[in-house]
Recover the amino acids of this structure.
């Protein structure tokens, strides 16, 4: 085969392998806003999944309209991410862990400035879930007898004005579940008399029995509600609400608040980087093969 033609043949092989990296079994993500289904059973690597890598599903929603029972309105945008598998979680010092993670991030919910009262939702404001296809094996390859789930809520209320403080009635609650069992109900608490009031709730955790591997292929679900928000003001949750279950043995130290924050806020790897490294590796091999052929 001509050297140039042989080189392009290998490049084509690299492209096929790169595409193969994205193939995976089906994992479904669901999102509803005010009881209306926005995303229904989104599968990994389908058109609605914004992330082309395997074992990561990203779904973005933008400027969705909400109306409470009094007719007051708001708009909401954000991104729901599900991630699972080896290396899906990360500790504060950069160590990788296996497990499953579900997070509502980049969320901005703004109550209309023309509202006559407080925008108020008591239930079913935002519900997001993912049914993972993941089996817990621990550090030794033996299914752990128990596993710990973690839940985090952080962000802020913003008055969107330099002369108006955040309304003292603003509040939000985040409930997290594993297989329909509650992890915790986290509430934002009293707001600060500032133009921006920070929400930073300590990480909650709960340990569940994994007898007979009942936590394999877990269902994680998060619910945002109740929510109360003053007219013209915004709730921002940049890296949470977040749920995760770490694939650890019972004798390993529990994750710290900083560990959970790192996992919830970490960015995903750029798919082009992995493919570029693959292509460079194969091109290097191609060059070596060509040199040997020419000798």
């Amino acid at each position: 085969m001509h050297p140039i033609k042989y080189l392009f043949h290998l490049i084509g092989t690299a492209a096929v392998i790169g595409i193969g990296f994205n193939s995976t079994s089906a994992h479904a993500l669901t999102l509803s806003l005010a009881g209306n289904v926005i995303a229904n059973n989104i599968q990994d690597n389908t058109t609605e999944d914004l992330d082309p890598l395997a074992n990561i599903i990203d779904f973005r929603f933008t400027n969705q309209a909400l109306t409470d029972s009094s007719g007051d309105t708001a708009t909401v945008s954000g991104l729901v991410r599900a991630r699972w598998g080896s290396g899906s979680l990360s500790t504060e010092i950069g160590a990788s862990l296996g497990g499953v993670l579900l997070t509502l991030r980049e969320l901005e919910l703004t109550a209309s400035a023309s509202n006559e009262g407080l925008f108020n939702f008591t239930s079913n404001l935002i519900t997001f879930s993912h049914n993972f296809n993941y089996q817990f094996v621990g550090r030794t390859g033996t299914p752990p007898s128990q596993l710990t789930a973690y839940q985090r809520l952080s962000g802020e209320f913003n008055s969107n004005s330099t002369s108006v403080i955040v309304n003292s009635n603003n509040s939000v609650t985040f409930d997290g579940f594993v297989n329909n069992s509650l992890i915790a109900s986290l509430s934002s608490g009293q707001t600060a008399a500032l133009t921006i009031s920070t929400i930073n709730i300590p990480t909650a955790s709960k340990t569940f029995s994994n007898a007979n591997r009942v936590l394999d292929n877990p269902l994680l679900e998060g619910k945002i509600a109740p929510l109360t928000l003053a007219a013209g003001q915004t709730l921002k949750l940049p890296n949470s609400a977040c749920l995760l279950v770490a694939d650890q043995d019972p004798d390993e130290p529990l994750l710290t608040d900083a560990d959970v924050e790192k996992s919830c806020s970490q960015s995903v790897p750029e798919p082009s980087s992995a493919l570029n490294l693959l292509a460079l590796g194969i091109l290097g091999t191609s060059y070596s093969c060509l040199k040997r052929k020419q000798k």
About this structure: The first strand starts at residue 28 and ends at 33. Residues 28-268 form one domain.
